[in-house]
Amino acid sequence: MSEELKSILDNVIYLDIETTGLDETSSEIIEIGAIKFKDNTITTFETLIKPRGRVPIGIYNLCTGLSKEELYSAPSLGNVRESLSQFLEDLPLICHNGNFEKKFFRYHLPQIKNTIMDSMELAAILEPYHKEYNLNALMKTVTDMNKNEIHRGLDDSINTLKVVNSLLCRLWSSEEKKGKKRTLYENINKYYPYLKKWSWNKHLLKPPFFIYDDYDYVSYKDKKENETFLEPLKIDYKKYEELLKDEKIWNNGGDFGYTYRKNQLEFSKKIRENYEKGERIFIEAPTGSGKTFAYVIIAAIGTYLNSLKKRKDDASFIISTNTKELQNQLIERDIPNILKKLCLYDKLKFGAMKGKANYICVERLNKCDRLEGDEEGNLALLFLRRLAEKGEYGDIENISYFIVKRFNLERYFKDVTCDSDSCNLEKCIKPCYLRKRYNELPTENITVINHSLLACWPYTEKKKINHLIIDEGHNLMEKCYDFFAEEFTSSEFLESLDMIDKGHPNIIGLLLNLNASFGFRETIEKDKIMYLVNEIIVNLNILMNDFRTMRLVSGEYDFNTEFFIPRDDLKTMTKCLQPEISALKESIYPLYKMLNTYVSNIVLDDEVTGDNDYKNINDYIIKLKGTFDMLDKFLEASTFFAKILEIDKEYDEFRLKTVPLNVGELVNEHMLKDVKSTTFLSATLRIENSFNRIKKHLGQEKANDFLIPPVFDLKKQTKIFALTDMGRYDDANYIKRISNFIYETSKKLSGHVLVLFNNNIRRNGVYEELEMLTRGSKIEVHTNKKSINILNDKNRQAIILGTKGFFEGIDVPGDGLSCVMLDKLPNHSPEYPILRAVTTYQHKMYQDFNYPQLCIKVKQIYGRLVRSTFDYGYFIILDPGENQYTLRNLQRDLGGPVIESTTSLKVLEGMESDYNNWKKRNLNIMIKKLQREKKDIGLEFEGESKKHKMFWELEGVENGIYNFKNINYELKGKL
């Protein structure tokens, strides 16, 4: 194979290692593979390395073909050091994600000093628009190779070679086609002084007489899509939701497993009627009801028909979501798929819109001094410029997580993203992705946004919100407090004070320029300005020192309290802090007054429209006055607001929040004002079997409501347990007890367990315990959300530990997820500041405030378990607390079986019988379906099982006896 390979680069080595984990101090190298190109001669190196410790079972699953016997009979690391060093010589090593190899070599093979060149870094600079840069993703994107990464040393080294060759071919081909005046190589050497010695720089220059045909696996297309062929259909769009009955539309192309559901039609009809009447409605649509499908079809057809009638206001929908996952799912999958089925893909426009701070500003990027001082900054600058140069990309949330970390982009985002106050999209002439999206808004039919943007919609002049669908609407119960809060953050305010005399441009510099342009009408006293700035900083430091002296932070959490009604032991302290906060506020005013006076005296009554210096200074002055007013409002006692003091656990910053308690008025004023129709959607809107709580909280008492009946039989498909023998969550032995129970459950179920935690500390504690308990077993323990996909692998036994980010958006139908556990009920602490304010000022009981949010969260968590008619399993609350009233209410609101309060031992005793019954039920359903359709079970069973994400397999048929197997459960019999 090596003789057939070619490398554009000579005198280099492509190398890959496999390890037992990600941390070099606790993990080992178990395989090294490399291919060397030296003076046009090719040689390879490949060896397994015998580990000294345990190899997690997941590694054998990850590394294709790796066996325990083969690994433990391999030479030790010490025995391969010499041969490896001789092979490597002093040639540069090209590794994919080179920092990984670098840290493992530094720790385990410190004698290897070769330069390591990161091919992932090269890919990011050359093609900055990809969402993923792992080797597997790039193989599928930049090459025509029809293969996957197998996580074996030599094979992955060869794949890295082909990816590097492909990236360089694509670069040079693109530069030739576009006839660029200056190549990337020339650009770097002219504009990026710190990248002249960048390890990849010299390799960006195309060799003379280069022959592209030598690399026939290169893909020169930007995207590879497997387009589904669709028959042209004549569709009567005036039927709206009645089209859901027409399976010809939805099964066109064969890529949908579509089944008509009457409830979905009724649901869709309600959305249409609400839209046509211009009303507001709350609809609870349980899991499996086809919620997204139902509202997208109405939005699509409604906007299309109104666009034909030239009714522009009614030809657009805004869809608001809470999570990034749903927003991406709608834009990348749901909306385009449904539009294609409806033959509307080329007739309607859709897109996502976010707040200004989510987009790169080319002007701010080019003025950012922090990117000009070293190689790291220059690399980040080069990446961001190439990403944003044509205005086709620029959403920072779409930048690969690896790239954000690799180039330390979070350090610069505040300096290079659009500033909400100073960004003028109407006058911007730069190639800006935000401006592109902004200008597309008026003609867009479906725009997907998030709830926080909806709360302060800043693009009204371009697109008015007429028809609104709020998906994941249950999140508004708590999120509205954040949306309408005013917040002073000490660290952010210090950064704004730095702008007075630091950076380009700074406020003093702008002030001097403005003064000069108006004929030096003022004498700018820089020293006096800086004296006032230092006075503010002194007051900030006094406050922070007071917090430390009072020892307000204890333990591993940030400190927070309601400022005017703290718990008794804090009352004296918060009272002492009032004059200190007042002093901070009063020290801001002189700076504001001085800057404002300077500007007024300079410009007088002259025309200043279009003067950027004036605009930037004036915006800064307005912000300064806003900060003064914010602190003034915070210090004013009021029964209409919660006043919250928060202190970072490391004393890095403090926050002062003013949170309105009556959010309903603000929802109507800021979110729904002038909106013609609004549909609130969620699987969890009702509390205590009623929409009244959420409607009242959001100021929507007059809105209609509609309940879709449950799609699944939760009483038959699930069991719910509240354990009585784990103890309370704050007991010393709680972590150990629940870890043992989780482990025993996983042994019985062969993994496929999701455990959710209310905080990271307990999650991390359980992870450490399970790491010890699972050693030597086949059970894997994961904490990354991307690991959810492992649950779908019947050959892997996985426990996934998640925190609040896992409460929603987890969708694992079939046998993949059969047990969900919750560490404790998500009760608010009695000291939760908003709770204290509501119970004190509005005279509500603890349960009146606490239960609604608890109910919604637990319903969401329970909803992770059943996503289809074939789903089943246990929902286990490890610490249910001591309030039986709460459990009784939950039992009613979950709509499932009786919550059984019992011991862990009894749960484990009944587990095998329950799960075998559920599996047997699913097997019978599939067999009966195939028999009803008169299909050959021997031929069709495997496909039917996979379609429903089942682990059932037909092992064989002998003498009319069918042998079925689901992991460790077997059933035999005649059909």
From TrEMBL:
<dbReference type="InterPro" id="IPR006555">
    <property type="entry name" value="ATP-dep_Helicase_C"/>
</dbReference>
<dbReference type="InterPro" id="IPR045028">
    <property type="entry name" value="DinG/Rad3-like"/>
</dbReference>
<dbReference type="GO" id="GO:0003678">
    <property type="term" value="F:DNA helicase activity"/>
</dbReference>
<keyword id="KW-0378">Hydrolase</keyword>
<dbReference type="GO" id="GO:0004527">
    <property type="term" value="F:exonuclease activity"/>
</dbReference>
<dbReference type="InterPro" id="IPR036397">
    <property type="entry name" value="RNaseH_sf"/>
</dbReference>
<dbReference type="GO" id="GO:0003676">
    <property type="term" value="F:nucleic acid binding"/>
</dbReference>
<feature type="domain" description="Helicase ATP-binding">
    <location>
        <begin position="250"/>
        <end position="528"/>
    </location>
</feature>
<keyword id="KW-0347">Helicase</keyword>
<dbReference type="Pfam" id="PF13307">
    <property type="entry name" value="Helicase_C_2"/>
</dbReference>
<dbReference type="InterPro" id="IPR027417">
    <property type="entry name" value="P-loop_NTPase"/>
</dbReference>
<dbReference type="GO" id="GO:0016818">
    <property type="term" value="F:hydrolase activity, acting on acid anhydrides, in phosphorus-containing anhydrides"/>
</dbReference>
<comment type="similarity">
    <text>Belongs to the helicase family. DinG subfamily.</text>
</comment>
<dbReference type="Pfam" id="PF00270">
    <property type="entry name" value="DEAD"/>
</dbReference>
<dbReference type="InterPro" id="IPR011545">
    <property type="entry name" value="DEAD/DEAH_box_helicase_dom"/>
</dbReference>
<protein>
    <submittedName>
        <fullName>Putative ATP-dependent helicase DinG</fullName>
        <ecNumber>3.6.4.12</ecNumber>
    </submittedName>
</protein>
<dbReference type="GO" id="GO:0006139">
    <property type="term" value="P:nucleobase-containing compound metabolic process"/>
</dbReference>
<dbReference type="InterPro" id="IPR012337">
    <property type="entry name" value="RNaseH-like_sf"/>
</dbReference>
<dbReference type="InterPro" id="IPR013520">
    <property type="entry name" value="Ribonucl_H"/>
</dbReference>
<dbReference type="InterPro" id="IPR014013">
    <property type="entry name" value="Helic_SF1/SF2_ATP-bd_DinG/Rad3"/>
</dbReference>
<keyword id="KW-0547">Nucleotide-binding</keyword>
<dbReference type="Pfam" id="PF00929">
    <property type="entry name" value="RNase_T"/>
</dbReference>
<keyword id="KW-0067">ATP-binding</keyword>
<dbReference type="GO" id="GO:0005524">
    <property type="term" value="F:ATP binding"/>
</dbReference>
